[in-house]
Amino acid sequence: MALQFESYDGGNFMGNLYMNMLVGTAAEALEAGDFNEVDRNIERRIGNAFFKAQRYQYAIKKYEDAIKHFDGTDIAVYNNIAMCYYKLGQTEDASNNFDKCRTKCIKALVIGQQHGAQKKDISKAMARIGMCYECEKDYEKAIEWFEKSVAEHPDKHVSINLAKLKKQHQK
After folding, report:
1. Alpha-carbon distance 88 to 98, whole Å?
2. Are 41 and 29 in contact (CB under 8 A)?
3. Rounded average pLDDT over 14-18
4. Which top-rank group of organisms is this from (predicted)?
5. Which of 69, 74, 91, 146 is placed for a possible disulfide with 162 were both Cys, Cβ 3.0 to 4.6 Å?
6. CA 91, CA 156: separation in Å to the nearest integer?
7. For residue 69, what pLDDT is reported?
């Protein structure tokens, strides 16, 4: 059975978001008595569905709702919000959205360092900052952030992009 819900603009948007997407996580959390975990994961998964449907503003809203349901130490949610702003920056109001992306990435970095986040999540935030600078054609800063990202946690795609940028834009 599909879960139906109304989008924020009043239309039926996500008619085929399947209930089983939520059941596993919800059942485990309910069994443990952790209702906050249920709320957080539902909000995050709905945000993921909006992201996949390229409805980035709605995804941001759901990810921000997820943040309200926990103590704010999961940098993956901040990374998800940052990616939404990055995607919006590629289509509209680039400068403002890239600034918002970088702000969320910096927030992710601070939280990650304070709470011992995984290196790959910290690296992901650094890479996204570099991606914004690359789109803005600030190649020096892009290279700087990609280097930080690879130093934190090597990633094949970031390394390839870094090598390409260095070859094309370093003096």
Report:
1. 8
2. yes
3. 42
4. Eukaryota
5. 146
6. 26
7. 77
Confidence at residue 72, expressed as pLDDT on a 0 to 100 scale: 75
Q: Token match 């569905």: residue?
A: 49
Name the amino acid, one letter, at 13: F
Q: Say which residues have a Cβ less than 8 Å from residue 135's Cβ, sequence separation at least 6.
A: 86, 89, 90, 94, 98
- pLDDT at res. 94: 83
pTM to 2 decimal places: 0.78
pLDDT at 1: 31
pLDDT at 43: 87
Distance (Å) of CA 86 to CA 17, 53, 56, 100:
25, 15, 10, 8
Inter-helix orientation angle 75-89/56-68, to 10°:
160
- Residue/partner pairs of 29-35 with CB below 8 Å, 24 or more apart: none
Percent of the chain at pLDDT > 90 equals 63
Domains defined along the chain, listed by start = 1-70 (1.25.40), 72-171 (1.25.40.10)
Through-space distance between the first and last CA atoms of the chain, rounded to whole angstroms: 59
- Three-class DSSP category at 62: helix
